[in-house]
Amino acid sequence: MKKPAHHVLVCASFRMSGEPQGVCHKKGSTSFLQYLESELADRGLDVAVSTTGCLKVCDRGPAVVVYPENWWYGHIDSEEAIDAVIDSIESGVPAADYVIA
Ligand code: FES
């Protein structure tokens, strides 16, 4: 099995019941998944994307985490914000405007 160079976790607010009910989902976190996947593919980046349960930073949602860098991003609610996340993966420099400190 070939492991990806990066892994992007997108909070989809899944609860124990499996229902997406939290802040990130309500703010549209999953509505940008297709855009995220297609942009990563267009740039030829080796990145896996997964949706998660609540990442416990709801007040900053929609939340996204990039590994192995351990960059936590908040307010990822637009194509512009997604582009900033992808730019950070490509450049190796975190997207300062969205970093959760
Ligand atoms: S619902 Fe996304 S961080 Fe809590």
List keywords for this structure.
single chain; 101 residues; alpha+beta; Glutaredoxin; four-stranded mixed sheet; 27% helix; 23% strand; globular; binds FE2/S2 (inorganic) cluster
Give a verbal description of the structure.
It is a single chain. Helix content is 27%, strand content 23%. With 101 residues, it is of the alpha+beta class. The protein has a single domain, classed as Glutaredoxin (3-Layer(aba) Sandwich), CATH 3.40.30. It has a four-stranded mixed sheet. α2 (33-42) runs parallel beside α3 (79-91). The radius of gyration is 13 Å and the shape is globular. It starts with 5 loop residues before the first strand and ends in a 10-residue tail after the last helix. The model has no long low-confidence stretch (mean pLDDT 94). Bound molecules: FE2/S2 (inorganic) cluster (FES). Residues 11, 13, 22-24, 54-58, 61, 63 line the site of FE2/S2 (inorganic) cluster.
